[in-house]
Design goal:
By secondary structure, this protein is of the alpha+beta class. It contains 14 helices and 23 strands.
């Protein structure tokens, strides 16, 4: 059989960046940090037994020695297929081979395999095997100007510290008001790009007819009102970081233009024929379930893959209530500085008020808490927290109505975590921190109890 040339394989090796070459980063329901990568094993063909790691970017597979995975088989084209690590798994793309690529006996052109599998280029076969490793917990009580003491926040700060040392693209997911923009600013400030611009693109606030011009810029006369040349926000961010806030609100017809700019790292101003090179780090954020939107066609899947290199889920304030006291102190200090010179009495929250604040669910998250503290400073505490109930009302089964309104899986995970923490804390309290005695009573292994204690940030001795 004749070899194909694989004309589609234009050596796209830059692919998806990742943290230190360790694959896609994710957090599980408990906030633990995992890295997902894949092993590529040659199972059939002249190179049987060959292995390669797919931890970042793209692997090229073919018979030419230039490939990352070389298959010495006459049915395999010189450049046969490429394997790319994406948010959903491994993207397998045939790049114009002569004899095609098959998965489960069916010829494929471009497919994403969430859990890998056996792929057959020509008569050869390669197996893609997932590797999912929980990274050691790294607890930090602060990250840049951000503060927090709750276990999920400490793990989040540990992850952000690692990400700040890289240029990896980061997608921040979380409810409105959780502080995604502040996290993006801290990532930039702690990175090697800190002395270069940090540019915010609010994809949800810019008028649709101006978004393209704002992103890419324009030249004089490109449209009515374009009286002079103007650089777009992506170009302004050159050398620094661009933060695409509420990226889920970007119109579908503009997404291919953004995708090309991010892939090629170049922009073309409206009315201009040439392209301009840009050197930027990309951070993005949304309160949407972007993965589901991509599956439903509401957001381009290829752009989602480009953005979802490192996914960071920012927990809502109700899941990290221990952060409320240090946040209040930080906001009090900031608000007092702004109110300096005004006739206000000092406001100092007492323990009862802090407990009341920790018992509230804060549907507006950190932003709502910050605004409430600012009001308290201006009003010297008078009625500033009138909207905060004394205690959250309970629904059926003694559960909060807010919890019962959340999706089943999310609510179940939250309850499991709450039970786990309460049980372990009470167990250790009864045994004055003696893990051996506590483990015997609970009927579990000491090592497992150690992990549970560390997972929830409980004290090692009492």
């Amino acid at each position: 059989m004749n070899e194909g040339d694989g004309h589609g394989a234009t050596a796209a090796r830059s692919g998806t960046a990742a943290l230190g070459g360790t694959g896609i980063l994710r957090t599980d329901a408990g906030g633990n940090l995992h890295t997902r990568s894949f092993r590529v094993l040659v199972r059939r063909g002249g190179s049987s037994g060959t292995e390669a790691a797919l931890e970042a970017g793209t692997l090229l597979v073919g018979s030419h020695p230039d490939n990352d995975v070389v298959l010495r088989d006459t049915t395999v084209s010189r450049y046969h297929l490429e394997l790319q690590l994406v948010a959903d798994g491994v993207r397998v793309r045939d790049v114009g081979s002569k004899n095609g690529t098959r998965f489960l006996g069916t010829k494929i052109a471009d497919i994403v395999l969430p859990e890998g599998g056996l792929v057959e280029p020509g008569d050869a076969a390669i197996e893609i095997v997932p590797v999912d490793v929980e990274l050691p917990a790294e607890e930090r009580a602060s990250f840049g100007h951000l503060v927090g003491v709750a276990p999920p926040t400490r793990r989040l700060f540990g992850m952000l510290h690692r990400l700040a040392q890289t240029d990896a693209t980061v997608l921040l997911l979380g409810e409105t008001g959780t502080g995604k923009e502040e996290i993006a600013r801290a990532l930039h400030a702690e990175s090697a790009r800190r002395d270069h611009p940090f540019v915010v693109v609010d994809c949800g606030a810019l008028p649709r007819n101006l978004l393209q011009s704002e992103l890419f810029g324009h030249v004089r006369g490109a449209f009515s009102g374009a009286e002079s040349d103007r650089a777009g926000l992506l170009e302004v961010a050159d050398g620094g970081t661009v933060f695409l806030d509420e990226i889920g609100e970007m119109p579908l017809d503009l997404q291919p233009l953004l995708l090309r700019a991010l892939e090629q790292r170049e922009v073309r101003r409206l009315g201009e024929s040439g392209h301009r090179r840009i050197d930027i780090r990309v951070l993005a954020a949304t309160h949407r379930d972007l993965e589901a939107w991509a599956a439903d066609g509401k957001f381009r899947r290829d752009l989602y893959y480009r953005l979802a290199v490192c996914i960071v889920k920012v927990p809502p304030l109700r899941d990290r209530r221990q952060d409320i006291p240090p946040l209040v102190q930080r906001f009090l200090a900031d608000a007092a500085k702004r109110a300096r010179g005004t006739a206000t009495r000092p406001f100092v929250p007492d323990a009862a008020l802090l407990e009341r604040l920790m018992g509230y669910d804060w549907p507006g998250n950190v932003r709502e808490l910050k605004n409430a503290v600012a009001r308290a400073v201006l009003l010297s505490g008078d009625d500033a927290f009138a909207d905060v109930p004394e205690a959250p009302p309970l629904g059926p089964g003694g559960l909060s109505p807010e919890l019962l309104m959340r999706p089943y899986k999310e609510a179940r995970e939250a309850l499991d975590l709450a039970f786990e923490r309460a049980y372990v804390e009470a167990l250790l309290d009864r045994h004055a921190g003696n893990v051996s005695a506590a483990a015997r009573e609970a009927g579990i292994e000491r090592a497992y109890l150690h992990r549970l204690r560390d997972k929830h940030g409980l004290k090692k001795s009492r």
